[in-house]
Design a protein that fits this description.
The complex is a heterodimer of chains A (501) and B (328). Chain A is of the alpha/beta class and 501 residues long. Chain A has helices spanning 2-34, 36-72, 76-85, 108-119, 140-153, 176-193, 216-226, 250-268, 283-288, 299-310, 334-349, 354-364, 370-397, 400-403, 405-409, 413-427, 430-443, 454-461, 466-474, 476-487; strands spanning 96-103, 128-135, 159-165, 201-205, 211-212, 233-240, 279-282, 316-325. In chain A, 45% of the residues are buried. Chain B is mainly beta. Chain B has helices at residues 3-28, 298-310, 317-323, and strands spanning 31-34, 39-42, 44-51, 56-59, 62-67, 70-75, 78-85, 92-98, 103-110, 117-120, 126-131, 137-142, 149-154, 159-165, 179-183, 188-193, 196-201, 208-211, 217-218, 229-234, 237-241, 245-250, 259-264, 269-275, 280-285, 288-293, 326-327. The longest helix of chain B has 26 residues, at 3-28. Chain B is elongated, with a radius of gyration of 28 Å.
Chain lengths: 501, 328
Amino acid sequence: MKQKSDYYWRRFFEILPGALSWLFLVGVMLLIFLFPVWGALFLVAFILYWVIRVTYLTILLLLAYRNLRKMKQEDWMAKCKTLELAGCDKRTDQLWHAVIFPAFRETESTLAPSIEALIRSHYPLKRIIVVLAIEDRGGEAVWKAAHQMKAEYESHFADFLVYVHPDGLPGEFKTKGANITWAGRKLKEYFDERKIAYDDVLISCFDSDTRVNHNYFSCLTYQYLANPKRTRASYQPVPVYHNNIWEAKSFARVIEITSSFWQLVEGMKREKFVSFSSHSLSMKALVDVDFWPVDMISDDSAIFWRCYIHYHGDYHVVPMYVTVSMDIATAPTIWGTIKNQYKQKRRWAWGVENFPVMMMAFRKDTKISFIEKLRRSTQILGEHFTWATWAIVIGWISPLPILFRDYLFSQSIIGYQFPSITGTLLNLTGFSIIICILISFALLPHKPANVRRVQIVKMFTQWLFTPVITLVIASLPALDAQTRLMTGKYLGFWVTPKAGG
Amino acid sequence: MPVALRLVLFYFFVALFLILLPIFMLSSLGYRYNSATHSFQRLGMISLRTYPEEASITLNKKRLKQKTPAKLTNLFPGKYSLLLEKKGFKSWSEEVEVRSNWVTQLESIFLFPEKMRFLPVTDLAAASFFPSPKSRKMVIWGKSSEDSGLWLLNLFLEEETLILEENQVPPGFFSRDMEIYWSKNERSIVIQKKGQCFLLNFKKPNHIVNVKNIIGFDEEPTVSQGTEKTFQFDANKIISLNQKHAFLRQVGPEAVGYTQKIFSFPAGWKQIYFDSQFKQLYFIQGSRLMRVNLAYGRFSKLMENMRETMSGSVQFFSEVGKKNETEE
């Protein structure tokens, strides 16, 4: 009986985000056609709200960028020493870093640059253990490449482990989470054998194309040591998509740059911050929560919520103003790029699957306060609701009163005032676009010698794609993901094609 | 950044939103503060479009920077004198009432040239003409010794074909009591003469067949001879004609109700017909069939399209204009 009730509750929470988004969109459309004046007033309010929100976020972006620049100058190793001298209960040389690179079909061309980036770290490499978590179903080529890399790079690190995740284990979906959980469990055995305490181990779970900044491990070590609740936190770097930025399609570049900016801004809202993509956390937290979920696609955010629920809300994300660079999802053709981008964003938006998991846990948890539950549930619901609706309202619905002006407003003044007022408001977002362009240039890596200068001009002109991106990529993937969750057509894991192969 | 500082920033923007929201709402609804009456009033607007465009606008004796088409916004309710001017065209002026929360639409104002050109349509000496229902063709009764008979004139291609010679019909057949009805496909006509009907297919010139009834034929469009006459110009305008002048009058429930003089007729004109589809006015002056082009804006485009459809690159008015031009 209880199981049946749980099933209905779970379905209810799966349906809720999509239902809210659809009800809102249909509601706005009906409002426009049934009560045009109210509909137009609502759109003016919505666009005003959006412009103010974008301005607020742009200021946060500027402040985050200032932090990033400031942190770039820091000597993290010296800061770690200072901490130790100040009486920190842990020492730098006590800590181990295990870096997991999951790979499905990715071979040396993708993984080698990521491992070489580790070698360039300003951190004792003999405290770093590299783990290649490869899928058995990925084929022999991947296995061979992994062992070749082990032979080539093993000497640089404390250890270089290759774990092969068997296919089709009971209870598992074909997800990255299942692969890294297998590797995590193997690592637990590895550390158990060596009697290394879990809180002395930091696990960095990276994508196979993740190339760390040379300060990553020293910064991570400092943040870990400095944090009094160090095992109750995930450590989130700023993901930038610079690996193939000079070769990628302009369209895709703009999307990924804005994704990076979004992460920068999210880092400013610490109390709301949730882990995303490549990040680190303690082995202790991982063992406590029994590693990543093996049946969920959004393993990056799911692990945060898993820890958050396990520790009854006493878990947070520490933003690290240090970058990790990844590939821009691209393809040889523009259509292929749009498709890949759409699928990647839909996979990110599938993070909405955490909502029912979280709500089911909240129902049973008595230690988290009602206010905290309300804050977190409205946060995740609100974020996904906004993601799925804003661009559709602004890009698709707000032109309707202009297109159907004669039908909707006859000779009423609002029909004529509406385009000029909303146009003026939307033009104000030009300020934010200029800031984005400037920051994107400031973050840009050096131009390789083989890249023509005209590419720099394209880095400016690419921002002209912003309206198209708003229409196609901004909200539709999120609405698609929510609709799938709502209708029970669950998403399968789609591996983003990597530039390296 | 400390959380407190971010919260200050956040609440600042929340406050900004709450302050701006009513301002934008009221502004969308057209409310503004009127310093003359010290009260908030709901504004009105004038939406202007002229044919041709780019006319300068003078509102209450103040020349505006905008040119037509234009939207004159933020107008407090009341009466405004509006003057539209364009070089080479007659100016248009009217007193326009602006109402609260209302857009006064003046979106099809026609500015007519100062010197209206009357262009001969054909060299035929015409006694009378019979336009087809779709106004693409015309049957002309040629009266002079050289042109006597019925001619078919394609109005777009400027081609004339003799379809019935005078020597093919009994003497006195062509006269003022002759009536002509067009077939719907404009490929034949029925000539009614003293209760008898004769079918004339354009493919078989000079071959008239006596028929008993005329089912499937349209009455010819209204043609007036000299008396006061009105034609529908568009949805809310009529062309009004008297012996001396042609006027454009705006009519209808929401109309501003203005009248503008288009031109004065030359002396000795007779029989008039207005083609409302292509905005062409036809009349006979002396023995010449003349045409006045009142097609501007979308109508001139319509005309252009029709001309291109009927013939790839036929020179139309410009060629005719070169032949012989009469000015108002």
